[in-house]
UniProtKB/TrEMBL annotation:
Annotated signal peptide: none
Gene symbol of the encoding locus: Vps50_0
Vacuolar protein sorting-associated protein 54 N-terminal domain boundaries: 54-345
Full protein name: VPS50 protein
Ranges for region Disordered: 1-25, 525-565
One Gene Ontology MF term: SNARE binding
Biased composition (Polar residues): 8-22
Coiled-coil segments on the chain, per record: 216-243
């Protein structure tokens, strides 16, 4: 222990704690000499015994550096001191101290090479730091020389060059901003040219460029202006879309659809389009009817413009009813044709897009989005067919029921039926509808009209029969009811361009629809004047003969009336009394009867009177009405049978009745005929 203390004294160390806290410079630290370390090793010790001594040291000695050993040992002294015990305890502490010193010395000798190596590294580091200090000193000296060598002018040039580069960039930005501010003029020109896709593309590019320069204060106002311009473009685009409803133009509609696609509002455009079609139908019918009402009123009173469409239809006069109906159907046809062509455009466009996608399927996301839009548009258009047609039916129904047609002329009423029938054909081709609304409205008008018409015809027939002289009506031997104007419809097929009873059978193929036929132009509701061939009839023989030669031969053969019985020279002979009227018989009358007798005997011609011909014409008109108005065909054929019953009863009354035989029950008529005559008398005559 004394050796360790002497070693520590030579090194200049006071205590372990002070040596740690007050480390002296490296130069003051001295390594123990080999002789001192050898003296410690020369003491014979058992390593195991020495380790046991070290282990016997109390742990409190290793607690911390601030532990006071002296105080600790003094406090452990017993109250009664014994010299022998103190010496024994002192010897024990000395042994422990010697063991610790020996262990420390061994560790120092063991770590000495590493200590020497580390000391050399510290020395090398000290040398490097000294060299770095010299380099820094030289650098500062050279910096001072450079600072003194460069003037402010040189540094000013560098600063100006940097400022120049910044100003060039600023100039480019200002020019771009100036161009953006002038785009409104170009946008206005493009809108006037109806280049909606180009205008939207330019506006979107300007907005993108404006977002790049948003750090400038003037750009905020420009952004607001561009947004207002874009909204204005959308408004004009909506107006352009509404024009499609009345006059479809492929190029115009293509531009509009491209514009909406750039805006990403394809579905919104389709919703707006259907709203415009509905509005177009309402505005079209209102303007057409309003024009005729004001024309008939003869003034420009604005009270009609404030009326509802239903009330406006009641102001249509009978003279303007048919032209107004024709113009109404023509206007509605244009709207439906525009819708049909719109669907055609989308079908062709979808096929083209599908072909492009199949050839290039890179953008899967965009393809799915476009496919969704196409399906939405297709379903919307298909659903809109029935809606459009329903609106058309309701408007036409309101017009039809707004006027009483019972006093119309037959040809005028037939024309109304033709137009409505043609319109129902359009509806069936348009959306496959049976047009129940139109059928019901025209059925009501037809029943009302036909009751009045039939009542009038019966009254006319009564007048014909009362004034009928029952003279033979001269007709050609080739006479047929199909030659009469009323029966022309039986030989002719229906046509959308003319009356259903006036179109040649070979005019239009049944496989071609109205929309395909008139897609390029024209209108199936155009009023066309009937040709002369339809109006003229060549059924009467010239003077009761087929030719002039027959008439001459008749005069030569029957020029003398000597062989004519006296009663045949009279104008009229009562078949019941045999009395003749007082009026004398003229030679011309007698000659006419001779010609009729000749015609009856020599020529195989039908036996007809004027009344018979009139009844046949009425039957033709009734059949024509049945052909057009199938829903009321049963009522029409019932009325037609009344015509025949009335004519049959009149013929029987004039020629078949024999009061003498009938009073005795020996009439010539059969029981079946009597039953029929009784039925006619009860149901028709006695009413």
């Amino acid at each position: 222990m004394q050796k360790i203390k002497s070693l520590m004294t030579r090194q200049g160390l006071r205590s372990p704690q002070e040596s740690v806290n007050d480390l002296s410079p490296i130069e003051n630290f001295r390594i123990p000499t080999k002789e001192e370390l050898r003296e410690l090793h020369e003491e014979p010790t058992d390593p195991q015994a020495q380790q046991e001594i070290i282990n016997s040291i109390e742990e409190v000695y290793f607690s911390n550096d601030s532990f006071d050993i002296v105080k600790y040992e003094l406090e452990r002294l017993p109250p009664v001191l014994s010299l022998q015990e103190l010496e024994e305890y002192r010897d024990k502490l000395k042994q422990q101290q010697a063991a610790v010193s020996k262990k420390v010395a061994d560790l120092i000798l063991e770590k000495q090479p590493a200590y020497v190596e580390e000391l050399e590294r510290v020395t090398s580091l000290q040398t490097g730091l000294q060299l770095a200090a010299v380099i820094c000193t030289d650098g500062r000296r050279h910096l001072n020389i450079a600072k003194e060598g460069f003037t402010q002018t040189s540094l000013g040039l560098l600063a100006n060059q940097r400022k120049r580069q910044l100003l060039i960039g600023l100039l480019k930005s200002l020019r771009t901003i100036k161009t953006l501010q002038r785009t409104d003029v170009r946008l206005s020109e493009m809108l006037e040219e109806e280049d909606y896709p180009g205008a939207i593309q330019l506006c979107l590019e300007c907005q993108k460029a404006a977002s790049t320069f948003k750090h400038y204060s003037c750009i905020s106002e420009l952004n607001s202006k561009l947004q207002d311009t874009l909204e204005q473009i959308e408004e004009q685009l909506d107006v352009a879309l509404s024009k499609i409803c009345k006059n479809f133009d492929i190029n115009h509609y293509t531009k509009v659809q491209q514009a909406y696609r750039l805006l990403g509002k394809t579905q919104t455009a389709m919703d707006q389009l259907h709203m415009h079609f509905t509005q177009a139908i309402h505005n079209t019918v209102f303007q057409v009817v309003l024009g005729y009402v004001e024309l008939c009123a003869g003034n420009t009173d604005t009270k009609f413009q404030k009326l509802q469409y239903k009330d406006l239809c009641t102001h249509i006069t009978s003279d303007s009813y048919i032209p107004c109906l024709a113009d109404l159907c023509k206007a509605l046809w244009e709207v439906m044709l525009s819708y049909y062509r719109t669907m055609q455009w989308h079908e062709n466009h979808d096929q083209d897009e599908a072909a492009v996608v199949s050839s290039d399927g890179n953008n899967v996301v965009g393809t799915e989005e476009n496919s969704f839009d196409r399906n939405y548009v297709k379903k919307k258009l298909e659903h809109g067919l029935s809606r459009i047609w329903q609106d058309v039916q309701l408007k036409v129904k309101t017009y039809l029921l707004g006027t009483d047609l019972s006093n119309f002329k037959y040809d005028d009423f037939i024309f109304v039926l033709d137009v409505i029938s043609r319109l129902m054909q359009v509806g069936e081709e348009f959306c496959g509808s049976k047009s129940e609304v139109l059928q019901e409205s025209i059925r009501k008008q037809s029943v009302n009209y036909f009751k009045t018409y039939h009542r009038t015809r019966l009254e006319e027939l009564r007048m014909f029969l009362e004034n009928e002289t029952w003279e033979l009506c001269p007709v050609k031997s080739s006479f047929s009811i199909l030659q009469l104007h009323e029966f022309k419809f039986m030989e002719q097929s229906r046509s959308p361009s003319v009356s259903p009873s006036k179109q040649p059978a070979s005019a239009v193929s049944s496989t071609v629809t109205l929309f395909e036929q008139y897609c390029a132009g024209g209108n199936p509701f155009e009023i066309q004047a009937d040709s002369k061939d339809d109006e003229t009839e060549d059924v009467l023989a010239s003077n009761g003969y087929e030719s002039d030669e027959q008439e001459k031969s008749a005069y030569q053969e029957y020029d003398s009336d000597s062989d004519v019985p006296e009663e045949l020279k009279r104008d009229y002979v009562d078949e019941q009394t045999g009395d003749a009227p007082i009026k004398s018989v003229s030679r011309e009358t007698l000659r006419s009867r001779k010609r009729s007798d000749y015609n009856l005997n020599k020529v195989n011609a039908p036996i007809l009177t004027n009344t018979t011909l009139n009844v046949i014409r009425l039957v033709g008109k009734y059949m024509q009405m049945m052909n057009i108005l199938k829903p009321i065909a049963f009522d029409v054929i019932h009325f037609m049978s009344q015509l025949f019953d009335y004519y049959l009863y009149a013929v029987y009354t004039f020629f078949g009745r024999n009061d003498m035989f009938e009073s005795t029950g020996l009439g010539l008529s059969s029981s079946r005929l009597r039953t029929t005559l009784n039925r006619i008398q009860e149901s028709l005559i006695d009413l």
